Amino acid sequence: MIGKEMVKALRERTGAGVLDCKRALEETGGDLEEATRLLRQRGLAIATKKAGRLAEEGLVEAYIHAGGRLGALVEINCETDFVARTEEFQRLAHDLAMQVVASNPHYLRPEDIPPEVIEEKKRLFLSELEGQNKPEHLWERIVEGKLERYYDQVCLLRQPFIKDEGLTVKEVIIEGIAKLGENIVIRRFARYELGERS
Fold this sequence. Notes:
- By secondary structure, this protein is of the alpha+beta class.
- It folds into 3 domains: about 5-50, Helicase, Ruva Protein, domain 3 (Orthogonal Bundle); about 55-110 and about 155-195, 2-Layer Sandwich (Tetrahydropterin Synthase, Chain A), CATH 3.30.479.20; about 115-155, no CATH class.
- Helices cover about 55% and strands about 15% of the residues.
- It has helices at about 5-15, 20-25, 30-50, 80-85, 85-105, 115-130, 140-155, 170-180; strands at about 55-65, 70-80, 160, 165-170, 185-195.
- The strands form 2 sheets. A 3-stranded antiparallel beta sheet has the order 1-2-5. Strands 3-4 form a two-stranded antiparallel ribbon.
- Strand 1 and strand 2 form a beta hairpin.
- Helix 1 (about 5-15) crosses helix 2, helix 2 crosses helix 3 (about 30-50) and helix 6 crosses helix 7.
């Protein structure tokens, strides 16, 4: 028997509806971790279906860190003005602006990184390998692994989410899509630091 407390705990973790939580718990035999994973997978499926839909509404969220020395602006879009005005969407936008301030991403996704930056990183990683006793036939795989970790640092969608390091920002967006029922897109962002040279 799945109790109300278990359903409530799963709802707090995922934000999914009561019936979805109850079904997920029943399907996983009451395993909270497995039910969480199941709901996240379903959220990904929902997000994939909605990804092609036009998202032109939304808002620009500003976050100024205490002391006024750091700040960020994030444009986050959804499909309707109705969703843009919900507390859930506004909280997501605020969290994303905080993420930009805290994690200082340079790009939204790896595809946005200029090819010359990637080539420079590859050269740097290769030069680091030259002084080590690693077999040359592994160098390409090692460089690719280092590039992936670089993307995780500098690309907003790949960064660990500051409020739950077990999720990436992209996964948080996917959960938002599943909860709100609309496509959600981060259009652009900017981070400002007092005295920083552009």
